[in-house]
Amino acid sequence: VVHFPEDMILNSPIEEWPWPIDCLISFFSDGFPLDKAEAYVNLRNPPCVNDVRAQRALLDRRCVYKLLETIGIPHPVAIVVERDEKTGELIGEAAEHFEEGDDYIMVGKTKISKPFVEKPVDAEDHNICIYYPSSAGGGVKALFRKVGDRSSAFDADSSRVRRDKTYMYEPFMKTQGTDIKVYTVGPSYAHAEARKSPVIDGLVNRNEDGKEVRFPVVLTPKEKDMASTICTEFMQMVCGFDLLRTANGSFVIDVNGWSFVKGLPKYYEDTATLLRMHIMKVAGRSPMLARVDSALRMSDLVLTDSEDAAEQDITPQEPRLDRWEHEELLAVIAIMRHGDRTPKNKMKLTTQLPEFLELHKKWASGPRKEVKLKAPRPLQEVLDMTYKIIGHDGEEEASRAAAAAAAAVATAEAAAAAAEAAAKAFVRAVSEEEVGGEAAAVQAAAEAQAAKGPAQLNNRTKESILLIRTVLETGGSFDGIYRKVQLKPTAWTLVQAAEGGGVAEEVVKEVQVVLKYGGILTPVGVKQAEDLGHNFRNEMYPGEEGSDDGTHSNGLLRLHATQRHDFKVYSSDEGRVQMSAASFSRGLLDLEKGSLTPICVALVEVDSAMLDDLPSAANPLLEEAKSVLYTSITGDKVKWSPSSPKSGKEGPSPATPIVATGSYNSQPDKVERFMTVEALLAGKLPNACDEPVRNMLDDFRELQERVLALNKELEEVDPALCNQEVTKPLLVQRRWAKLKEDLWDKKHNNWDVSKIPEIHDAVKFDLIHHPRLAKSLIPLYEVSKRINDVVVPHEYGWDARSRVRIGSVVCGRLLRKVMIDLSNTLKEVSPAAEAQELALRQKNALPKLMLADPAFWGLGNAVVGSLKNLRDLFIGKPATVQEELTSPPPSPATYLADEAAASSAASASAAQGSAEGEAAAAAGEELSKEDEASEQEAEREAEAQQAQEAEEAEAFQEAEFAGLDPQKAGDLRSPYRRVRTRLYFTSESHIQTLMNVLRHCHLLKQSKLRSDTKEAEPSDPADGWTPQTSCPASVDLSDTASAASAVEPAPGPPLVCAEMERELTENPIFDYLTQIVFRLYEDKRVPQDSPERYRVEVLFSPGASGDPSKTLEEGVSPLVPLRPLHEADQALTYARLQELLSPFTVNGAKSNT
């Protein structure tokens, strides 16, 4: 081996470089004269390990992507913003059109939205940026080569793209926080390692030797083909590239050229052997050359331990002093509610102020179009406009104005409303013939309003504009998640063209300004979620008890770092829910403190259809439940929309009393009645009675008195008593003034029951964040809780039947995903099966004829044909890529047993069919046309079902887990162990409905549901409500005894035991960070086919459901500990859970193991 001296490379002419040589190893690095190396190769034409001329393409990311596209390798689609290197001016397509918005850039006609990745086209420049959308908090994360323990830094204040050179922009891809580095040595050898992605927190994980922690992972067959193709087509025998695994497949994002694995001696030994054999081959020195490629198949090379993996693996699980001590944890599936938030609020202002009219004209696409302002730029414009309208008033003046407005609500608002009504009546009375005069009048009115200035605004308008300004100034920056201004045109006029004779133009003369704000995850909510993540790690996963801070534990963190923790987190699209998920993940995985935005974008997958959106079939059911509840409380006949919007059929009037059987009374004129708290808490509706019960009326009267008392106390707010980190005094005053107005529905002259949850949330929030604000808070909380405990549970059904029905519609998709998660966990190949498969692979010296001989397996001829795939597996052919929702290849023993059983069943079926066929032929019978039509219909239904399942499988598709390669795991004690974690963060509606299903699922079973489909109400399967999930229309499940006789509940105990059912009935509200957890265990001492082998533990916590006035430090409310819903000492098998929940999942489909 001849090393070219550096001085020779830099200063000597290529003619003086060594020659002759058998093979050249040359690769680019910083400062290397690639031009001279290319000239040397052109002069001497030596064989090269890595083609020198092809290395120039690796220096430009545009060329790399172009070549990847040419050879069919999946990669991100990028747009390029080219700039002149000297002047910095735009050139190429960007010179024709380049636009940068708040959350996007556009080049030509191509638009890319944030989050996106910005890469220099120079491949040697590793300063890459990720730009986050304002909806996730905004900001930029800069990635760079590792400096100490840092590899990235986040800047929350930056948002504009760089303009100093040419950059590529491509969509950001979610990978659940893992990058994969692939290293090839020839087209038949590849080694892959996974590491924590720098997009998460920028902290580099290093081992005791100071090296970055990486662990070998298994490549899929498709990824191996990609590695082989890249190595061949880029003409780089020794090559590295970066791979991202997403839900849409694997993508190559960079090709690095000459790269080696760090700190893996066996890899270097293999690489040296491969390089030597390749060089001997091209030099013509070895007689064994023809066998090189075939002898070095990727599947035949078994790599060994890395030094990074040499440290001790997880300690054995501590023996448990119960009957489950021999079990191993397989999966943790958790559904959680978001953390503490500010109250959600809405303000409406109808105005003709020219500033708002101009704002609508600027941002709306037409005079009749509504406009929503969420991005920072238009919101900043609205904020500036408020200063223009009302001047730079101080907070003290704003408080005085708000107090004055609150004191004169009855008179000032009535006068303002009367004036507005008169003005509208006058304007609308103008005839169309007076268009020109009307336009002049409008213009004159606008000028007059402008001349009046801020002092002439009525109190209500000024208060509303002050509120808009206060809300927009809160937080110091716009993130778009929690604040939105809508402009809805409500009146128009025609304005003649200035020149005359032209077509009159329609313009807006009045708009309704709608300000939506609140619902922000508070600092308390962030801390709650993060602390819960830390505690969840210590309590839910074995091996975590030994460390107080979790940083040196041997449980979950060790599994996660060694690629044995299959972790994914989902959220609805609400900002508070996403940030709760990010905060919890930071605590669970012990991530670095800092902004939650990078964690949210990189780890949290938004799935609105599963966790946020209500299926269209749920809306009439929820409206029906609310109508029944509101009518029962107030006695009013509440208008209820049709039960099926598509069919147009109207449902029964909820004002009609409901008797104990659950059916509607046929006497609509029956006297309405009020509900007692006790009756509603018992989950039953009383019979109609002649005299109304006044209990709830007394509660509502007391509630109103408490709200009035609080408003009087808040007329003068001491700013020192208000936690201004989460809200402003003006917002507190405005919120309670609005709730006071809304509690009594003036239009219907009755209580507005829908405002009860808002009042309860508001008083709870104030008690947590500024408890000394008013003395009226505690008594108001007590009465609001009494009423809220009745209202909220019954908004999701008035008896067991309605609650289960609503729950299966609202949460059917979520339940389906949970069952898929558990099922897929069981489908993963067990360690014993893996070891057996590896042992069988090593026996590939067995002749193929021997493998095909039935006597070798002790089986009959019937299974010979089914052994083909098994032989392929044994002789080392790559398996098919396994998707998330499909089963991996079974172990040989299971495979053959299944085939033998299937063959036996097929033989019996064939014999029976043959006998029936002979009898039919003897009788001269033929299948009738009706039978043929029936068979065709069954085939069509089966095809439709398969298509629907395929569509559902695609919707639930997840990125393939980059699991540890057990064959290269080194000294890890349990390399085959794997724990699956799935976290689902959602809102109260999904938590309430899911708990309803868990509490009442034992009252139904799937076979009964199917037999009663004709009696069920018609529904649209596309809405997520099918006959398989319909409850029998004539059955009342409010009474367990009658329900049992009518429906024949599934055998066995209910999922929720009697003690927990009593607690849930007494405390029916599921507060912030409510948790529903499924833990799946395996007892390997039990036979594989026994139902007792797999046990599921279902745990529940109502979250922060305690007294909000008794918080811990920093205002954090304690969370109720998790407890089993079922009897703790009785095993709930996976088979039993599947039996109970399958009827309530989407399509009622089962997830068989």
CA-based shape? globular
Please list the strands of the largest sheet in the order they lie side by side: 2-1-10-6-7-8-9
Show unreliable segments: 289-322, 394-455, 544-554, 638-694, 839-907, 919-925, 1006-1047, 1147-1153
Radius of gyration from the alpha-carbon trace, in angstroms: 35 Å
Report, as a whole number of angstroms, the end-to-end distance: 58 Å
Largest sheet: 7 strands, antiparallel
Number of H- or I-type helical stretches: 37
Q: Residue share in helices? A: 25-40%
Annotation, overall tally of beta strands: 28
- Determine the strand fraction and express it as a percent band: 5-15%
Mean pLDDT: 73
Q: Specify the structural class.
A: alpha+beta
Explain what the structure shows.
The chain is globular. With 1153 residues, it is α+β, with helices and mostly antiparallel strands. The longest helix has 32 residues, at 892-923. It contains 37 helices and 28 strands. The protein has a seven-stranded antiparallel beta sheet with strand order 2-1-10-6-7-8-9. Helix 10 runs parallel beside helix 22 (729-743), helix 14 (523-540) crosses helix 16 and helix 25 crosses helix 26.
Q: How are the SSEs ordered, and which strands pair?
A:
Blueprint: H1 6-11, H2 34-44, H3 61-70, E1 79-83, E2 90-91, H4 93-96, E3 98-100, E4 104-107, E5 110-113, E6 116-120, E7 128-131, E8 140-147, E9 150-155, E10 167-171, E11 178-185, E12 190-196, E13 215-216, H5 221-233, E14 238-246, E15 249-257, H6 265-283, H7 292-295, E16 327-337, E17 345-351, H8 354-363, E18 371-373, H9 376-390, H10 395-407, H11 409-428, H12 435-452, H13 459-473, E19 484-495, E20 505-517, H14 523-540, H15 556-561, E21 565-571, H16 575-588, H17 597-603, E22 604-606, H18 608-611, H19 618-634, H20 677-681, H21 695-713, H22 729-743, E23 744-745, E24 750-751, H23 756-769, H24 777-794, H25 800-810, H26 812-827, H27 831-841, H28 848-852, H29 854-857, H30 868-874, H31 892-923, H32 929-955, E25 979-986, H33 988-1000, H34 1006-1011, H35 1040-1047, H36 1058-1066, E26 1075-1083, E27 1094-1101, E28 1123-1124, H37 1134-1141
Parallel strand pairs: 16-25, 21-22, 21-25
Antiparallel strand pairs: 1-2, 1-10, 3-4, 4-5, 6-7, 6-10, 7-8, 8-9, 11-12, 11-14, 12-13, 14-15, 16-26, 17-20, 18-19, 19-20, 23-24, 26-27, 27-28
Helix pairs in contact: 8-9, 9-13, 10-13, 10-22, 14-16, 16-17, 19-25, 21-22, 21-24, 22-23, 23-24, 25-26, 25-33
